Amino acid sequence: MSNLLKEKLQVINMGIPAFSDALKQQGIATTQLDWRPPAAIPLETREYISSQSKTIEQANQQAVQKLLAATPHWVGMGRALDKIPGMKSNLILHSGPPISWQRMCGPMQGGVIAALIYEGMAQTADQAHALASSGEIEFAPCHHHGTVGPMAGIVSASMPVFVVKNESGANCSYATMNEGLGKVLRYGAYDSEVIERLKWMERELYPALQAAIEHLGKIDLKSIIAQALHMGDEVHNRNRAATSLLYRHLAPAVIESCSDRGLAAQALNFINGNDHFFLNLSMAACKASLDSAGNTAGSSLVTVMARNGVEFGVQLAGCGDQWFVGKAPLPDALFFPGFSKEDANPDIGDSSITETCGLGGFAIAASPAIVQFVGGKSRDAIDYTLQMYEITIAENSIYQIPALDFRGTPTGIDVAKVVEKSILPFIDTGVAHKEAGVGQVGAGVLSAPMEPFLKAYQGLAEHIKTE
């Protein structure tokens, strides 16, 4: 002890970083340990999960191998009523976990209003509001029907959808076409401009793209995503490279298969002017990949993270279709001029399926420009991705990050690691105005809330006990 007091002081700090900063200012050698206490869960549950670690690990390896082996391809298009399993003319699909019309947030209600006007079931917003609250319209999560939708996630019967097939597992997923940014249905806008655009997409864009994909047969989405990661996309908030690569596949096929050259030009110009066009396809690709890993008994792998603007929901491979939910957080964002955090709706959308599959915020080191939304630096983007390796089961050998010496993206969120390490999934996202009819007001980032992961951890223990 006497010798220790004579030596030069060196400190390892496990607490608040400010303590390290104060010591460093005094010239004291200090190491900040990146450690957090485990989340607050019953000791009995923690011990039970620990006792089942071998079973869980075996199940996780089985599930994640299916996820990594998935080969999503865009194979066709069609009307939602004709393609989506269980779709009905009076059914409207939405993002996130189940929610009633009365509990829906402003942008989701706005998206429903737009869909009812688009379908011709209402002529005005007031009529649509009355119909939606009458009980005649049914609502269900997109995820219950193999579908994903960005932001409000609204899908109605007449909307054209992409059909994406995981050819290694033969399962399919579905998503609508992306409208672009700003005042659009998925952000809760429903004025005449929004409806006219949707009608044009149905009557002209959809036939042009349907003919093109029939001409091509299929497009390998996994290959496009892999290339886009090398070109600066993380394939959630930034899709410029992916959309450009898709355009190269589509342009010759649209020209060759469309007899109306004017229509072909309009379709290609729309895609060229919409950097986010690939987003919906990337979401469907991730959904098809993750669904192949679902229903794996004993697995703690997260297969769904989704938000309805009120709640944040999680599903596990080992817990079937059961939802575990908590309050949806507000994103940290860069807002459009005239808007602030007070205007923002809590996080919303199925697009976090990209993070669930190892893209988006998990691959943000490939797209450091996104952290500029919240005043971050390129090093922050790398640190976010490195942290996500701590809570995932595997690395994707196809989806690689150049800035990390082509290391595979962190893939397969393990709910046990999230809870035991208190490290939350990092997500980048768009921001909708909290009131219906306004639309997008910004874009930013956030960490998922802990509550749904705690519930999922406990739910997994209960499922294993009953199997």
How is the secondary structure organized here?
Elements: H1 2-6, E1 10-13, H2 17-25, E2 29-32, H3 43-51, H4 53-69, E3 72-79, H5 80-83, E4 91-94, H6 106-118, H7 125-132, E5 138-141, E6 160-166, E7 171-176, H8 192-216, E8 219-220, H9 221-230, H10 240-257, H11 261-272, H12 279-291, E9 302-308, E10 311-316, E11 324-327, E12 332-335, E13 348-349, H13 353-356, H14 378-388, E14 392-401, E15 407-413, H15 415-421, E16 426-432, E17 440-447, H16 451-466
Helix pairs in contact: 6-7, 6-8, 8-10, 8-11, 9-10, 10-11, 15-16
What is this entry, summarized?
By secondary structure, this protein is an alpha+beta fold.
Q: How does this structure look, described?
A:
The protein has helices spanning 2-6, 17-25, 43-51, 53-69, 80-83, 106-118, 125-132, 192-216, 221-230, 240-257, 261-272, 279-291, 353-356, 378-388, 415-421, 451-466, and strands at 10-13, 29-32, 72-79, 91-94, 138-141, 160-166, 171-176, 219-220, 302-308, 311-316, 324-327, 332-335, 348-349, 392-401, 407-413, 426-432, 440-447. With 467 residues, it is an alpha+beta fold. The chain folds into 3 domains: 2-32, no CATH class; 43-66 and 292-466, Alpha-Beta Complex (v583 fold); 71-285, Alpha-Beta Complex (Enterococcus faecalis V583 fold). It has a 4-stranded antiparallel beta sheet with strand order 7-6-3-8. Strands 11-10-9-13 form a 4-stranded antiparallel beta sheet, sandwiched between helices. Helix 6 packs across helix 7 (125-132). It is globular, with a radius of gyration of 23 Å. The model has no long low-confidence stretch (mean pLDDT 93).
